[in-house]
Amino acid sequence: MKVLGIETSCDETAVSVVEDGTNLLSNVIASQAEMHAKFGGIVPEVASRQHLLTIIPTIEEALNQSKCDLSDLDLIAVTNGPGLAGALLVGVNSAKGLAMAGGNIPLIGINHLSGHIYASWLDEEPETMSEFPFLCLVASGGHTDLILMKQHSEFELIARTRDDAAGEAFDKAARILGLKFPGGPEIEKISKLNNKSYPKLPRPLIKGSLDFSFSGLKSSLIRYAEEKKWYPKNNNTIDPEDISEVASAFQEAVVDTLIRNTLKAIEQYNVNALILGGGVTANSLLREKAKLKSPVPVIIPSPKLCTDNGAMIATAGYFEYESLGTNQLHQWDMDAIPNLKLG
Q: Among 18, 152, 173, 251, who pairs with 323 as Cys (CB 3.0-4.6 Å)?
């Protein structure tokens, strides 16, 4: 079964063809990171317009790489939320047009968060991915959630961020320290230069809850930078080794907070494995600490499948079809839902 997956929830125009949920035939991503870097963050209107320019060439390239025609496709899966409204609309309407042009190819809408979870199915053996339930940590620029996956297409949200997402916190920290956008990879890269001790930053805790919070950590970083007279002045004059120390401290604090709450959730729920997904989970320190400290097996997709991509949407579409059947297909009335909930 060949599934075409389309992902346009934020700033990546991504299209992929996946066979039988695990065999990756093509994975094409048109990134807008460089375009948004000059703004220090995602500009929704700019993102939507760029999706319009790149969606058709990206679809064509994904089909070419997979050596497929429209007639070869058994299903089209598209992210219909959550995400930026304008960006989502480009993907949803393109998917509808493609399905109609192909002679009413079955069409299904996919929650972006479930896509990040299903990315792991592309890197693991099927037997490994059958021992439900799983605990899933989805950490990205827009989301930091703990999700209980009971069966295919059966999810329960058990914790979320009360303010900033982990990826958003990294972006803001990078801006404070004078680093480039996106912040996560920049902070990880400069942190590797640090060979000294670094300042202690807090690990935010919400008592009696598994929810996350990163706004206090961000405020602590701002106060530290102000004391050093780095912020809001021009950061180009700061010694890179000094920036590296603080970046290391911030990265450690974010990772420790994510791991702490995740371990508590593993204790609270009787799960057989931990799945990590989302752009933040490409962070090498997070991957290392999760594997080191988790009492259950840790399943993490390769870094290229942690960030937004069409393959994860195609895989999620395949398993949605397998578990929910044809009553979920031909969703011609599908709309983009920016605040779409999972479960």
A: 152
Cα→Cα distances 206→37, 44, 161, Å: 33, 31, 10
- Mapped onto helix, strand or coil, the DSSP state of residue 149 is strand
Q: Measured between alpha carbons, how far is residue 198 from residues 59, 107, 186, 235, 248 in Å? A: 46, 51, 18, 18, 7
For 131, which DSSP code?
Answer: S
Q: What single DSSP character describes residue 212?
A: B
Q: How many residues does the chain have?
A: 343
**Contact 325/70 with Cβ under 8 angstroms?**
no
Rounded-to-integer distance, Cα 43 and Cα 289, Å: 33
pLDDT tens readout for residues 2-27: 999 999 999 999 999 999 999 999 99
Angle between helical axes of 215-227 and 166-176 (0-180°, round to 10): 10
The residue behind tokens 């011609």 is 332
CB contact set of 261 (below 8 Å; sequence gap of 6+): 146, 159, 210, 211, 212
How far is 300 from 127, CA to CA, in rounded Å?
15
- For the chain, report the end-to-end CA distance as a whole number of angstroms: 25
CB neighbourhood size of 2 (10 A):
17
Structure confidence by residue, pLDDT tens digits, 167-200: 999 999 999 998 999 999 999 999 988 766 678 8
**Domains (range + CATH), the chain:** 2-118+305-328 (3.30.420.40), 131-300 (3.30.420.40)
pTM of the complete model: 0.95
